[in-house]
Amino acid sequence: MPTRPPPEPPEDPISSANGTFSNPVIGGCHPDPSVCRVAEDYYLACSSFEYFPGVPIFHSRDLVHWRQIGNALDRPTQLPLPESTPSSGGVYAPTLRHHDGRFWLITSNVPHRGTLIVTTDDPAGPWSEPILVPAVPAIDPDLAWDDEGNCWCTFAGIGQVRIDPMTGRALEAPRRLWSGAGGQYPEAPHLYKIGDLWYLLIAEGGTERGHGISIARGPSPTGPFEPCPANPILTHRSTDRPIQNTGHGDLVRAHDGSWWLLFLGVRPRGGTPGWHVIGRETFLAPVTWTDGWPVVGEVNPVMRAPAMPPARWPVPPVRDDFATDTLAPQWISVRSRAPERVSLTERPGWLTLRPGARSLDEPGVTFVGRRQAHLNVRVRAKVEVAHGRGGLAVRLDEQHHYAVEISGRTARVRARIGPLEQSLGERPLPGGPAVLRVETRASAPSPDHPRQEPDVVRLGVEEDDGRFLPLAELDGRYLSTEVAGGFTGRVIGMFAGAGAVHVDWYDYEGHDTALHDF
Ligand code: 6LW
Description:
Layout: E1 20-22, E2 34-38, E3 41-45, E4 51-52, E5 54-60, E6 67-73, E7 90-91, E8 95-99, E9 102-110, E10 114-120, E11 131-132, E12 142-145, E13 151-155, E14 159-164, E15 169-170, E16 175-176, E17 187-194, E18 197-204, E19 212-218, E20 226-227, E21 234-235, E22 244-253, E23 259-266, E24 281-290, E25 293-296, E26 302-304, E27 319-320, E28 333-334, E29 342-343, E30 351-353, E31 366-371, E32 376-397, E33 400-407, E34 410-417, E35 420-428, E36 434-442, E37 455-462, E38 468-475, H1 481-484, E39 491-511
Antiparallel strand pairs: 1-26, 2-3, 3-5, 4-28, 5-6, 7-9, 8-9, 9-10, 10-11, 12-13, 13-14, 14-15, 14-16, 17-18, 18-19, 19-20, 19-21, 22-23, 23-24, 24-25, 27-39, 29-30, 30-39, 31-39, 32-33, 32-36, 32-39, 33-34, 34-35, 36-37, 37-38
(Z)-L-Arabinonhydroximo-1,4-lactone binds next to β17 and β22.
């Protein structure tokens, strides 16, 4: 059991008394946000790729403070992710909507299931079994209903098909709708009836530095669509803004009548080309209307908050003592979480992990982690490895991870970067549980020290008196999306490679600004 009382939750990092909030509103790998409103409650869903459970669902009352209330795909029957699922495969962009008193979510499981719909009357779950929609030939499906009750599914390309959302059956042949404003990969469509017009919001330019959002409008859900003369209505391409790759958004009209855009962006650091390490995050920006077109307000790290009473959730648990019989929804595993490999009951008060594969290099590894949500974090875990091997890892994918692991009575750091693997630093342990620690510090370049790396990752163990003993200090660029490729960001968690790995507690502390001593 823990040897010290859990720390006070950190100050709310999102908003301050002077009516501003800090962007991102949902830090860490939470890309492709889709938002809907029911009265004064807001709900948001994000992509989740090869992680299980999939499609995190968030709730807010002010568009700034978001609390994860569950995952839409939290049963293997909803989300089969076999070992053949590539990293950054699996669940791509969802669309979350509320219609006729129910919540509807449509997404894609690539390449296994294609397009699927789940529905519920409680967004915290459980959600239904998937309804497959075979007629949709592309990712990024959207759902919109017209006043006659027709359900229009619009998808990347940009194409569209009218469907029956209860059966997934196509009611017509798909049609091409719009090819965007000239950017590559027109995708992420969302269709809205606003006033007497239909608006088609899309992303284009690719999800990297060329990313942007464009919009068109027309008299009907099938168009014809007239592009906005000011397209793209949001992009940071070719700028030196600290937030880059802005795109893939969803519009929402707040209950006070104001309009807002939730969208993805990244916070690259280090020398050129800049590396983002915690994935594509969810950002918020105000929207006004001019001549019947939306105008997105400037996007900055600190912005004026919506004029709604801030709902100050208790900050999500930063420490988990595993004293419950189910894992909190923030915990994610790689592709699957078999009960015989991940248990909260085998050793009450401990999380017990048993191997599915020998190492993090393999797609079937047993791993339970949380998205790194801040640029500077300290993650600690008290771990006991009984006749086996396992520890605490910073994972991007099978080819890119750093870990401090225990094997026998030795703690060692292993780094995997592409085809290269190396053991770096080791230390004998006295036996019994050990506290493993990972710290990341965003680099602060200065004239006399133009540091190239985005951050530094330190891995090691704690002495009995709590002093940190780093066994390795590594350049964080090799755990960045620019190096690894794909669509995800770092996840920090425990893994088992052999035997049984018991975890007493996991403690996360994160800050986006202060480079202070943790
Ligand atoms: C998603 C597409 C995109 O399906 O990246 O940035 C893809 N936009 O819309 C994966 O997130």
